[in-house]
Amino acid sequence: MIANACMHCADPVCMIGCPTGAIHRDSMRGNVVINDLTCIGCATCANSCPYNNIRMVEIRATNGDFVLDQNTNLPILKATKCDLCTDQLGGPACERACPHDALKRVDMKTSRLLRGG
């Protein structure tokens, strides 16, 4: 298994060209996030991400049905990516789900690398 998570880049090219500003840096935490309400599904961010970590997915209504475009009758796509589970009290779900505690999200600025002897 390979973890494929947003790098929350220092200079994110995925934010360049977003016509609505839906992809932006959170002012409180500094994470790169996508606002679902303002994303129009243009895929500019997904096409720009050098790590291919932004995906275009069909959105669903609260009942689970796909939300369809009224003109084309096709599912509406919006961008999605890792947001570090900012709304989860326990932290990133991928870290909590790892069966061997091998996955840890760390801040490289404040953590130290432990070397084996």
Global mean pLDDT = 85
- Estimate what percentage of residues fall within beta strands: 5-15%
How are helices and strands ordered from N to C?
A: EEHEEH
Task: Determine the structural class based on helices, strands and strand pairing.
Answer: little secondary structure
Please describe the biggest sheet, giving its number of strands, its sense, and whether it closes into a barrel: 2 strands, antiparallel
Low-pLDDT runs of 5+ residues are: 113-117
The helix fraction, in percent, is under 10%
Provide the spatial order of strands within the biggest beta sheet: 1-2
What is the number of helical segments per DSSP (H or I, 4+ residues)? 2
Distance between the termini: 28 Å
User: Could you give the count of β-strands?
Assistant: 4
What gyration radius follows from the Cα positions, in whole Å?
Answer: 17 Å
Overall form: globular
Summarize the structure in words.
- This protein is mostly loops and 117 residues long.
- It contains two helices and four strands.
- The strands form two sheets. A two-stranded antiparallel sheet has the order 1-2. A two-stranded antiparallel sheet has the order 3-4.
- Strand 1 (23-25) and strand 2 form a beta hairpin.
- The radius of gyration is 17 Å and the shape is globular.
- The two termini are 28 Å apart.
Quick structural overview:
With 117 residues, the chain is mostly loops. It has helices spanning 44-48, 93-97, and strands spanning 23-25, 32-34, 55-58, 77-80.
